[in-house]
Amino acid sequence: MKVLFFGKLRDALGDEYEVDPGQGETVAGLRRRLADLHPVAAGELLSPRVRACVNDWLVREEFVIHRGDTVEFFPPVSGG
Amino acid sequence: MAVRLADRPFVPHEELADFMAGLSGEGAVVSFAGLARPCTGSGETVERLVLDHHPRLTLSSIEQIASAARERFEVTALAIVHRHGAVEPGEAIVFVAAAALHRRPAFEAADYAMDRLKTEALLWKREDRDGGSEWIEPRGDDHWARERWDQTCPE
Fold first, then answer.
1. CB-based contact (8 Å) between B50 and chain A?
2. Distance between CA atoms of A78 and B99, rounded to whole angstroms?
């Protein structure tokens, strides 16, 4: 499973990396696991303002992720 | 409707000329260009802006905004160009143009598109300053500007 970060999270954690999802792991569970691995970005990773996207679809926290999925985390946006 | 992401500098008046060349019979054109400022509100020098984007969803998020503007206002044409990557001070970040038979829908469509671009386009903006970098988030007045389009008049 590929995990990608954007904006502030990309600066803190890099572009992307591979991680195996746990059995039945949800987006919320993945956030907690990543936050444990990267305490420096824990506040951002666990923030409800950071949205999760799986295979180009915004998903809820209880969404179950699978091997082969691409999970992306979007901090608050700022265009214009 | 023309929506484009640009990874290199673009010239707003050339975008406007292209946009106007495609019109026929409209009575009003409104355009807006957002430029990278050379310093912050407190006077600190900004070396550059860096706009992070998503390889697929950034463009579709801007296309949705453009479609909504066209559906909501009586405009005949709408164009949006948005930079990504490193933007130097003075360079254009965003260009919006709207054309209509009469001026009011053109003003409103451009204003509406900009308010939504500031708060909803899938872009992430970092200011690289003398004293360090900061990721920028929409301000309170940006959210207010966006929300006013959802308000309805009391009966």
1. no
2. 26
